[in-house]
């Protein structure tokens, strides 16, 4: 009888329950996805002018790029100058703490730059910066 009982114990297969570990991993995955900050790009590469007083700007959430030919880009799509205000209003409504950073090419005309700055201010965003490059880079 004792030998029969010993055989039953050896045949019993013990398994580790993986469900709690999978729950924890899934919760961590959701946490990292929700808290991740994504880099937004204006849509084109701009040759920015150099400035001796360039300062790193944090929390710049609304990026507007102006190409050397005067094209305006927001969120990787080309936008007409007349539609810049509506686009900035929409993006500012999504994130009221954001600021506008204009990445103007050094060969872009100041006419387009001023129109974009006016559109940002008309949209209610008064924290408008112009992106430059540090001298010597």
UniProtKB/TrEMBL annotation:
Matching Pfam families: ExbD
Alphabetical keyword list: Cell membrane, Membrane, Protein transport, Transmembrane, Transmembrane helix, Transport
GO molecular-function term, one example from the UniProt record: transmembrane transporter activity
Location of the protein in the cell: Cell membrane
InterPro entries reported for this sequence: ExbD
Lineage top rank: taxon: Bacteria
Claim: Protein transport is one of the keywords in the record: yes
Record's keyword annotation contains Transmembrane: yes
Membrane topology: Single-pass membrane protein; Single-pass type II membrane protein
Gene Ontology BP term (one): protein transport
Main localization (coarse): membrane
Record's GO cellular component terms: plasma membrane
Transmembrane parts of this sequence: 20-39
PANTHER family documented for this protein: BIOPOLYMER TRANSPORT PROTEIN EXBD2, EXBD MEMBRANE COMPONENT OF PMF-DRIVEN MACROMOLECULE IMPORT SYSTEM
Family: Belongs to the ExbD/TolR family.
Protein name listed in UniProt: Outer membrane transport energization protein ExbD (TC 2.C.1.1.1)
């Amino acid at each position: 009888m004792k030998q029969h009982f010993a055989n039953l114990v050896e045949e019993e297969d013990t398994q580790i329950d993986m469900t709690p570990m999978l729950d924890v991993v899934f919760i961590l995955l959701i946490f990292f996805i929700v808290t991740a900050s994504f880099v937004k790009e204006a849509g084109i590469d701009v040759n920015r002018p150099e400035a001796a007083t360039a300062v790193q700007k944090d929390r710049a959430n609304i990026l507007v790029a102006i190409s050397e030919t005067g094209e305006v880009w927001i969120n990787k799509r080309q936008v007409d100058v007349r539609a810049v205000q509506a686009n900035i209003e929409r993006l500012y409504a999504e994130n009221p703490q954001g600021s506008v950073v204009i990445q103007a090419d050094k060969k872009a005309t100041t006419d387009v730059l001023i129109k974009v700055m006016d559109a940002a201010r008309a949209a209610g965003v008064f924290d408008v910066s112009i992106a430059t490059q540090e001298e010597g880079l």
